[in-house]
Specification:
about 120 residues, three-stranded mixed beta sheet, 3 helices, 3 strands
């Protein structure tokens, strides 16, 4: 049962990346990467995790641009995916990459501090 939502999630991810790169003209949605897509078992809801380069203002603007483009993206996905219903899209910022970089910096500092001793 879980294989189909995963396959649909991968298809949504690929199509969204293409749409965001080639179709969406909103400048607020410039540097967005779709990290992963989680699809519900009934395929009616898709939680889209994305990452953005930039500061907090840029992240807020990107979130606003994605919210504005959600209807367009959903209608485009309906034409590309062969599903009875196009899933509702829920965009969520994924800051795990930034947290990973911060952790790596902290570990690097700890390592250099220990080497000095």
């Amino acid at each position: 049962m879980k294989e189909r939502p995963q396959r649909v999630g991968e298809a949504i991810k690929a199509d969204l990346m293409d749409l965001l790169k080639n179709e969406v003209k909103d400048p607020r949605v410039g540097f967005v990467s779709v990290v992963r897509v989680e699809v519900s078992g009934d395929l009616r809801h898709a939680r889209v995790y994305y990452s953005v380069l930039g500061d907090e203002t840029g992240k807020r603007e990107t979130a606003a641009g994605l919210a504005r483009a959600t209807g367009y993206l959903r209608s485009q996905l309906a034409g590309r995916l062969q599903l009875r219903h196009a899933p509702e899209l829920d965009f969520r910022l994924d800051d795990s990459i930034e947290r990973g970089v911060k952790i790596a910096q902290i570990l690097g500092q700890l390592g250099s501090d220990q080497q000095r001793k």
